[in-house]
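Quick question, first post here. What does this chain look like in 3D?
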Amino acid sequence: MDKKLIPTKKTVVWGINKRKGDHEGLVLGERGFFKLDHVASMIWEKIDGNHTVEEIIKSISSNFPSVSPNIIENDIMELLNNLSKDGLISFEYKPLELLLHEKNRRVLSKGERDIDIFLCSVPSPYPREMVRLKLISFPPLGIGYIASFLEQYGFKVECANLSALDNEQIVEIIEKIIIEKSPKIIGFSVNTEQCNSAITLANFCKNLNPEIIVVVGGAHPTFKDLEMLKTSYVDVVVRNEGEITMLELAKFYLEGEGDLNQIKGISFKNKNGEIRRNPNRSFIENLDSLPFPKRDIYPFEKQYLNFRALPVSTSRGCPHNCVFCSAGSLSGGRYRMRSPKNVAEEIKSLKERGINIFHFVDDTVTAFPKRLMEICDALEPLDIEWSAESRVDVISRNKNLVKSMKKAGCVALQFGIESPYQSVLDSLNKKIKVHEIIKAIEFAREEDITVAGSMIIGLPNDTFEDVQKAIDFGIELERKFGVAIFFGILTPFPGTQLFESPEKFGIRIHSFNHDEYILANSVISTKYLSKNELTWLYIDGLRRALENMPKEWIKIQNKIGS
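> Answer (accepted):
Ran it through. Tokens below.
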């Protein structure tokens, strides 16, 4: 092994139990969990994509002065080889920033424009691994809606889901589009963990073509617009919904129509480099007025017809205001709905193209039971299957609704359980009762609807023992009802009350590096739990949940992929 090689972790799901003297570690790979002893855990922590094998050997050797350097070197080399064979680390992975730096070159525009606008979803900063691959298997709806809306007004738009590509492919597609098709505007859809990658890509685009207009939008830029604009690579931030705002930007930059100062819902830098924040744009009231989203998004294009499940949005926003979620803030605290007829028309059009399995991506599709009943009545004759997310309170009070959902093709529901403690649920402003969790699960399972439940590790005032009991509660739901339990670490995303007032909830934010905001890595500590303890509890809970994962859920997930 070349000692100049730089190993990089291929998984972000790992933890080390530093409460125990042996510092045992657990790492999730493609073939399950791997255990690390004390020394292996020390080595694992040194694998950060920045240190060479030689530097790791030197660092570890300093901790064991009485052990022969040759023995330490051989043991470390053997461990690194084994970790590589098990797919847990890579010696060849190049971060996106490094690849773009190597490729950076300025090109001359060929003088003709094949497309007007190129829209992209942004990749994660981490190497692809099995968990993430499952999360990115859908064509993104956000840029799909904006693209179809712009095309309706005659603009030429292409889209790419960069999250589905390797870093080398990302560099290739960006370079090819800018050089060969010369778009005037490139737009990036950005979530919190992707914001640094978006800035890196923006820099690359500006180096290829200094005249290109870089626009970013999505949840993170909406709340951190000034932060995004402090770089010299982002020209405009679109806040909240993007369709009408992007149309006005397209008309301004491509047709010379309008005035940037008058476009609502944007933040931008004027000619003097000063950041200007225009007033908010009103939300679109009639969602039925929007065209159905563009589905042929690279690299999926026509392959989306072969997807296990296709995403559909029947509403926007959330009528609730949970302290850990930004959905309410992002939508102005409003919940807007497409009509049942409009939803059914989209489903019918997709079914005519051979698609029979769908996933409703609404924050909560069951917010208004009467409307959902009407949707179910329209879907029942279509002979389709679908999954969705729902609050437990609505389901626990509407047994007939559950029956209608089943008849209409519902095969799986995901509930936000969060915690088994009523006092904790109340502190989250969740507005559900523990007994409603059980009742909702029972109603769904009685109709043979598969259930998944999400729970949060590190809630305010939880002790180590409280979290362990909460994990026990989740495992009991798996064993008793066949519920698939998924844990995530409490993360203060921008736009949430947790981010705005962490002290109010007894948490301390240790990192504002948004690369780390991934639910599998703690960026906070609480009154009773350290960062390390939160991460370890998450890893241990995930291990137990996967060990007890219902076979029925695995079967349905392989079918619908949601």
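The chain has a mean pLDDT of 90.
DSSP finds 22 helices and 22 strands in the chain.
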